[in-house]
Amino acid sequence: MTALVTFDHATLGYGHRPVLSDISFDIPEGDFLGLVGPNGAGKTTILRAILGSLAPMSGRVTVRSGLRFGYVPQRDSVSYGFPLKVLDVVMMGRYDRIGLGRRPTAEDRRLALLSLDHVGIAHLADQQVSALSGGQKQRTLIARALVGEPTVLVLDEPTNGMDLVSTTQILGLVRELHEEDNLTVLMVSHALNEVANYVSRIALVLEGAFRIGNVDEIMTESTLSAMYGIPVDVERFEGHRIVLARRGQGQATHDHA
Amino acid sequence: MLSTVLIFREALYGALLIGLACSVLGVYVVLRRIVFVGAALAQLSSAGIALALFLAGRQFGGVLTQHPTALALIVTLGGAMFFGLGGGGKSGVPPDATIGVTYAVAAAAGILLISKATTGEAHDIFLQGNILGITHADTMVLLAVTVPVLVVHFIYYKEFLFVSFDPETARTLGYRVTTWNLLLYFTLGLVIAFAMQFAGVMLVFNFLVLPAVTGLLVAHSMGGIFAIAVAAGVVASIVGFVLSVPFDLPSGPAIIATSGALALLAWGVRRIQAR
Questions:
Q1: At what angle do helices B136-155 and B157-165 cross, to 10 degrees?
Q2: Kind of pairing between the strands at A3-14 and A17-28
Q3: Distances (CA, A) of A185 to A28, A42, A150
Q4: CB-based contact (8 Å) between B90 and chain A?
Q5: Is the terminal CB of chain B with fewer CB neighbours within 10 Å at N or C?
Q6: pLDDT by residue (tens digit) across B7-65?
């Protein structure tokens, strides 16, 4: 499959301080990749390099020409103090297509409504976005990303702070979008247990270390124990993988969130 | 009473223009939570005027000091660009602390400079301005500043909204967020610098905050908040001004008191709506 994004021996960092050194991997078309690691490990750094807001210190990050990202930011990074309706927020996903200084048309409105319908919240179009639940806000942001007709859907911590039901629903929706719309998906998360049961591949980022592979390759006791630096068990329960730090080993040299 | 008001009609026009422009920009100031940037810029503007008067008294500075607005404009726009670029947030000092430092230092510098200025417009300029002294020429200047600013904000409403609401996503869609922020702060600095010399720190700050808060309390859409903010700014200007003339009250505080009353009314309406 064609690579949409290629990291070629890229070293990423800020100023003169490298965060991740010499990483190489591809994101092929149709991939469902989970970028997993604790806060501060470098997930956002990789994300910024992909989205083009951070140039590598050395090596290359190549993004296929004409690629369009549908970005879903962390839910709480948005200013909910603005008195905006759900439809207004979704329409923003078309602003760059509408053009500078122009107003959205009836067609933009129709597409925004379709996008809301696609994520199952068309009935909330006229609601204030600030009044929605966490899961509904997340669906609104996903609808906004989809209305721009993206090649790659990029989600930053989509289930952060959500309860079990909302988490399952949002991850199920993302998987549906990947499978039914054949959308390439990059999902950033700190929750390995959540992501591992939905994605096809995992990129694990831990304190400067980087490892990428299929879920079966990454979700092994030897790989995870080596990456986390503590003994880790990987259990299977009704088709789900569950990662557990071996009891009494959590206070070793690492302190991950 | 009407004839008395008519004598000062240029002052009323000036107050209306300042109220209108500040109310529109104030919506972004309040929603972006940069209220004290407005106060700091107003204070910087007054320090600029004080510097011009100080230098003029010493026959120094040439053209810049003959027109205090020129120096106020330079200082205010410099501050606006600084805050538009993040207010030195990367230096490790929290942005709100930087705003506080700017406010305090600009206020102190202004008072120190004016106290040593030989040509004096006294301290009124820092607090109350001199709104009754607005001439026809001043109104024309205010018109020349506020109309282009409002036109820019009308045309690029969508862009200003997006970079204010969710700058991270706007950036991924190709928006030059820093440039838009600088344009927003530039228009803010421009309006504050010109408004300051007539309206004073207190009234400019009032127009940047209270009408937008009034709108935010009762409106349920961006269009609504702009409409109510503008209406509140205009009504406060007219009512405050008209009441101040026959009762021999200072116009600025009268307008501010009216703005406060409107905000209180909006709060009451919101309480009733919430029931």
A1: 70
A2: antiparallel
A3: 10, 19, 10
A4: no
A5: C
A6: 778 888 998 999 999 999 999 999 999 999 999 999 999 899 888 888 887 777 677 66
Cα of B164 to nearest chain A Cα, Å: 8
Question: Which pTM was predicted?
Answer: 0.89
pLDDT of residue A229: 80
Q: Can you tell me whether residue A247 is helix, strand or coil? A: coil
Query: Residues of A17-43 as b/e, b for ≥16 C-beta within 10 angstroms?
Result: ebbbbebebbbeeebbbbbbbbeebbb
B164 has a chain A CB within 8 A of its CB: yes
* B222 with A88: Cβ contact below 8 A: yes
Least confident of A78-87, A157-166, A194-203, B83-92: B83-92
Residue A53 contacts B where some CB pair is shorter than 8 Å: yes
Query: How many angstroms separate the CA atoms of B46 and B76, rounded?
Result: 9
Identify each DSSP E strand in B181-228 by its residue range: none
Considering only the beta carbons, identify the residue of B159, B164, B165 that sits closest to A100: B159
User: Is B156 touching A (CB cutoff 8 A)?
Assistant: yes
